[in-house]
Amino acid sequence: MPQFKDISERLFSRIAINDSGCWVWTGAKNEKGYGKIGLPRSSKTARCHRVSYELANGPVPDGVMVLHRCDNPSCINPEHLFLGTAQDNSIDMATKGRNFVPDNRGERASWSKLTEEQAIDIMTRRISAAKFAVLYGVSRSAIFRIWEGKNWRHLGNRS
């Protein structure tokens, strides 16, 4: 862990405590709401809840995740954090009703960048993956996943 004093001062100067006792990170966050903080003398960033856990409890073993009891991704309160495996995280998500919902497919999925009409176009029109990627602003691998039936599989494979 980089110099604790410096990072702890920065970390704990950017929190707001809510009614649930969560220490909500008010700095930069990733797309899923997890706080992120730049590490001293490095171009790398770390998730704030993980840094907070390590400051309070010591290093997190390799392959272990820092999970939230409060289910608030921006919370960095060490009392709300615990260690677990990927399987523990999946069980925790399912128990709290945050697991993937199978009917959340296609453009209803929050992460979808394409419409159903665009996906059908990709499956049926014969142009290169590179041209589709430019046309729809996605990666070529996203196009290949559609062609292989890995994404948008509920619409059927490429004809």
Structure description:
This protein has 159 residues and is an alpha+beta fold. The chain folds into two domains: 4-95, Homing Intron 3 (I-Ppo) Encoded Endonuclease, Chain A, CATH 3.90.75.20; 106-155. Helices cover 34% and strands 13% of the residues. The chain contains six helices and six strands. Strands 1-2 form a two-stranded antiparallel ribbon. A two-stranded antiparallel ribbon has the order 3-4. The longest helix is centred in the N-terminal third of the chain and has 10 residues, at 48-57. The model has no long low-confidence stretch (mean pLDDT 85).
Throw out a few tags for this protein.
159 residues, Homing Intron 3 (I-Ppo) Encoded Endonuclease, Chain A, 6 helices
Structure at a glance:
34% of the residues lie in helices and 13% in strands.
Order of helices and strands: HEEEEHEEHHHH
Which structural class is indicated by helix and strand composition?
A: alpha+beta
**At the first level of CATH, what is the class of the largest domain?**
Alpha Beta
CATH topology of the largest domain: Homing Intron 3 (I-Ppo) Encoded Endonuclease, Chain A
Bulk shape: elongated
Number of domain modules:
2
- Percentage of β-strand residues: 5-15%
Helix content: 25-40%
The average pLDDT score comes to: 85
What's the CATH architecture name of the largest domain? Answer: Alpha-Beta Complex
DSSP helical segment count: 6
Q: Main sheet, how many strands, which sense, barrel?
A: 2 strands, antiparallel
